[in-house]
Amino acid sequence: MSNSKGELHRIYWQQWVSSSERKSRRELITSSAGIRISHSGAKAKDVTQLLRDTLKIGSSQVSQLDSGDHLVLVGTLYSLPRDYVQFEHEQERRLSHSFETQQNSNSTATTASSPSVSTYPKSDPYHVVKTLDPEDDPLEVKRQMEAKLKQLQREAPVSRTIISPKLQWFFIPSSNEKESLIPNCVELDGYCSSLEEEDDDGCSTNSDSNDFDDDEEERISSGTDDGSSTENDVNDRQFSYAQSLCSLSCSRTDDIVTKRFPWLDDNATEHTSRNDAQVNLDPAFAHRVNKQRKRRQMLHKQQDATVKAQAYAGYLYKQSHKDSNVWRKCFCVITDDYLWYISRIYSTSNGTDKLSYSKYGRIRLTHALLLEPSPDYAPLFRTPFAFELVTGNGTSHVFRASGKALQTKWIQTLSSRIIQSYENSFLDNAELIMADETLVRTQRMESLATDPFWKAIVSSNDPVSVDEHITRMRGHLGAVLRWGMHVSVFKERCRQIQRSLPAKSPVVVTTLSPESSSRHSSFASHPIGPVDPFVAALIESAWTRAAELLARAIHVATQLQSRLPHSIEVQCRHIDYMIHGRFRTNSAEDASRSSLGDYQRSSGTDKDEKSASDRNNVHRDAPPIDLFDQLLTDLQLLAAKVAVAKRVKSDVDQVSSTEDNGLNGIG
């Protein structure tokens, strides 16, 4: 209705039925109000403000992340054929069923019948959605929508019964309105698309489906090209065959495809070059189609590699990044580490040929965050059966399911798969982790066994002894150096055991309240938890290795100096007590006479034997990591002093020998 005062339009809004339980608001009713829109100066923000005042919602508080109230125009077509919106997996099943039907019809002879008029089966409603900006002119957008619907009717084959397109206005309050009974989207039966994007949406470089790892895609594509040429040819033929069938009737598919694309036939290889020359595609469009083909191959490879019990697929509605009120239906597939979403089939005419393709996008589940609807997050809570995936780089993807049961199933499956993907991601970084760990271990070994030893020798101003004993790994200095490296390996084993042991007591965080601070925690007195048998075996082997290292240290020390310094002897007795739980009655020198492989303990008193027996029968903690640190430092200093003394003695002997030879020559 139009006159000089403006056009009268009816604005609709969907509303949840009021309930005492907020989480049960999932039944919608539709209400409307009539508004006259002026031809001059009327803006979308004026309409939304009038509706807000009419519904008594209150003032809108628009944040930086929220665009405020939305005025949405929905144009609906009811006369498009059913196969106008179709997906690849549906087409494959339909073609398989059509082929079986054709074989059955050819096997039975039928008499001539009266001609019948073939009609297109009607499809579900096809909606074109446009969300108006605050400064948009509603009447101008309405004219653009009418032109778009007429264009779709001209380009698409329609059924015999043509139903006129339908235009509807919808009002959606600000997404941050927590208490609003109006959902954050428009519930529509059928397929939704946007006003600006239709067929071009599938090949737009900035479309929603281009959330893809291009580097990995190129790497996989290069690997595919370097593979077997026979396998590539088969994949290309299968893709070209499947894509060509999208625009053809099932009854005439084989004949038309073979006639138009003879190179698809294995026996018609001689026509390949001639038909390739006839296909003249736009380079940019050909590049986009080829990229979607490679993504399709990647999806099939990942599906084949995924365990069938863990695979999950189904339809979801994905929110557009450009228009938040456009929810496109897509077919989603969960593989090992990705959530793939596949658009419907788009068709593009190229002269006499008609190419068809689908968009493929994927979301990496590693380091992804899954958000469920919550009253604290109004935009997601006001969207029925929605959930949100946030990738590791911060990109958000919002999906809607068709029901509560499907929403729960998708959330549970994605949650478990995200955890599994995160655990599997450590395998990708295994080489980096091992390299870092090896570097840290080498640095610890150098700081423990090599650097102090080098500083001790350099400080003695005897560089010749370094060349003779360290670089050649001969003599007593080399023995001390090797023993220090064994100690470093022993310390790494102790670190592994410490990481494997259960905590002695949990960490308790106390509050500042006087009641909690006055109470003593009962956790502090809890003993260590049960030790795994494997860890217990590691502990026992570590103590055995400690005894061997002590015996080797005493052997090296006695080789350096027959009578050990008091500090080294005290260290040896202390370590022996830590290992066996008793003090020796004999000296460390006598202990060094025993075999290094079988370190025998000398006999002692009954009290000592009983103490040692009790210590072996009870549970022992892991050896201290710094058990041999002080002993190693003392041995390094002793070795440096002995080396200097030997060097000085050698120089004195050499000078004396030279003088004697000179005197003999004179005589």
UniProtKB/TrEMBL annotation:
Biased composition (Polar residues): 221-234, 589-603
Region described as Disordered: 95-125, 196-234, 589-621
Feature: compositional bias, Basic and acidic residues: 604-621
InterPro entries associated with the record: PH-like_dom_sf, PH_domain
Residue ranges of domain PH in the record: 309-419
Ranges of Low complexity composition bias in the record: 101-119
Identification of the protein by name: PH domain-containing protein
The species this protein was found in: Fistulifera solaris
Classification lineage: Eukaryota, Sar, Stramenopiles, Ochrophyta, Bacillariophyta
